[in-house]
Amino acid sequence: MTTVPVSTTLAAASPWALPLPALRRAAPVLPVVALIALIGLPPLADGVTPADAASGLVVLWAVVRTARQARRPLTRTAAVVLGLPVIGFAVAATVTPSAGEGLMGLARSVQVFVLVPVAVLLLLRDRRDVRLVAWAVIGLAVWQGSVGVHQYLTGTGASYDGEFVRAVGTFGPTEVMGMATVVASGIVAATGLALENPARRQRVVATVCALVLLVPLVLSFSRGAWIATAVACGAQLLLAGVRRAMQVFAAAVAAGVVLVGGFGVGTSMLQERLDSITQVAAAPDQSVLDRYALWSAALGMWSDRPVTGVGLKAFPEYRDGHAPLALESAADTDGAGHDFYRQPFFSPHNMYLTVLSEQGLVGVVTVAGSWLALLVCGLRRLLRTRTARHDRDCALICCGLLLWQLVDFTYADTGGGSATLVALDFGLAAWWALGGGAAPATTTASESGPR
Questions:
Q1: Gap between the terminal Cα atoms of the chain
Q2: Whole-prediction pTM value?
Q3: d(CA 118, CA 100)
Q4: How many CB atoms are located within 10 Å of the residue 418 CB?
Q5: Tens-digit pLDDT string for the chain (451 aa)
Q6: CA distance 372 to 380
Q7: Which residues touch 42 (CB under 8 Å, ≥6 apart)?
Q8: Contact 184, 171 (CB under 8 A)
Q9: What CA–CA distance (Å, rounded) separates 131 from 202?
């Protein structure tokens, strides 16, 4: 008679018997997943969000785990590319008029663009971890998108054109780009999975998620997010295959003609918002006029201090001295559970001009140079491994998210609760571009569905 160990019997009877090995294997990256789940929660105090606090724990976890493994954490190239922005941040912090503001700006910038991306790079081991993080981003996007659609349908969103219909999710009217950033990141991640994931079920679910998330993205009324998403997803389609890209583009155009032209789908506000994209020079609205004025102010600051800029977090102090009279120093915000508030313009709403005005040429070379190096390294590796299908979805996700951020930086900058997601996107891009990618993992039955 064969004796079966009690532990084996209990494991077989337990409903957690199958997931436990997968959970143990995913344990190192679960803090990253938990960090994603916290994005969008209300601030705790002094503007610090739960995601900001948790990101520090994720960095600490990455340091402890790397030290326990007693291995070299980064390659020389990764250390140079990811560490380069610290030079620009440090130089700009020394010329900031307020020492306190300079130190706060230095800590925040290093957190978003250096520490969290490095931690994500260290914690991600192979493509299964990347897919797990991608599905977590998609889940966050579905949650925020659902809240945004509900706001639009019930008239409880942020104020837009006199109506409370702008979808902002849980980020509120003072951070109107927050939900758009999350939803767009979910669309880009889902597009990468839908195009090249080896598991058919994952491709189908990802396709459905990408299509569903288009609704809240449109209802965000964010022109910058629309443009960045179109560019990133278009690049993903082209990198996945020109023939497939042409088919998808043709289907999208046909659907748009039928929905908008045939059935008249789309409100007048959406139509006006779309039209305004091509009217920024001929008949710009006040938001565009303010954007031009802020850009002009940023360029004026840079012309005064071309090498080091005016210092981290110093844009508001020098803004009025360089801005044209057409600038309104604040924007009206209301709705989505908040009272009316005049939101001051603390930045030029262009990340590149923010770097140029506050950090000068030193910042452009070190910070923007680091971003460009990430993009070049990622695309080069993607083109070299086009035949390796098992890695293609991860490559498209990482390169797509980075490209989205770099395009969106033309219309926005980092700030608020969505800054943590920006850091995560840079970490994913660094994993693909600089981490070398872990050895390919064998596709198993556990990868046949969303993770």
A1: 41
A2: 0.86
A3: 26
A4: 25
A5: 444 443 443 344 333 344 666 667 777 889 999 999 999 888 876 667 889 889 999 999 999 988 888 677 788 899 999 999 999 999 999 999 888 888 999 999 999 999 999 999 999 988 889 999 999 999 999 999 999 999 999 988 888 777 888 899 998 888 888 899 999 999 999 999 998 888 889 889 999 999 999 999 989 888 889 999 999 999 999 888 777 677 677 766 665 555 555 444 455 666 666 655 555 555 556 677 778 888 989 999 999 999 999 999 898 888 888 877 767 766 767 667 676 767 777 788 899 999 999 999 999 999 999 999 999 999 998 887 664 567 788 999 999 999 999 999 998 888 777 899 999 999 999 999 997 544 444 443 334 333 3
A6: 12
A7: 49, 170
A8: no
A9: 10
Q: Six-digit token pair at 133?
A: 């993080």
The number of beta carbons lying within 10 Å of the beta carbon of residue 274 is 16
Question: Is residue 396 within 8 Å of residue 429, measured between CB atoms?
Answer: no
Q: How many CB atoms lie within 10 A of CB 431?
A: 28
Quote the tokens at residue 368: 């923007």
Provide the β-strand partners of residue 160.
Answer: 163
Q: Please name the helix (run of DSSP H) or strand (run of DSSP E) that holds residue 164, with its range, or none.
A: strand 163-166
Question: Which residue shows structure tokens 């209802």?
Answer: 219
Q: Other C-beta atoms within 10 Å of 265: how many?
A: 12
d(CA 81, CA 118): 11
Query: What is the DSSP secondary-structure string of 166-179?
Result: E--TTS-GGGTHHH
* DSSP-derived secondary structure letter, 368: I
Helix locations, 199-350, DSSP H = 200-219, 223-240, 242-256, 268-277, 286-304, 315-322
Residue the block writes with tokens 């250390």: 79
CA-based nearest residue to 427, from 135, 43, 90, 59 = 59
DSSP 323: S
Cα atoms found within 13 Å of the Cα of residue 187, Cβ hemisphere only:
27
Give the pairing of strands 338-344 and 330-335: antiparallel
> Tokens in use for 201?
């079920």
Alpha helix positions (H), 313-418? 315-322, 351-363, 369-384, 389-408
Burial label for 150, CB within 10 Å (0-12, 13-18, 19+), is: middle
Indicate the DSSP class of residue 163: E
Close Cβ partners of 126 (under 8 Å, ≥ 6 residues apart)? 437, 438, 439, 440, 441
In Å, how far are 29, 125, 193 from 437, measured between CA atoms?
A: 15, 7, 17
3-state secondary structure of 338: strand
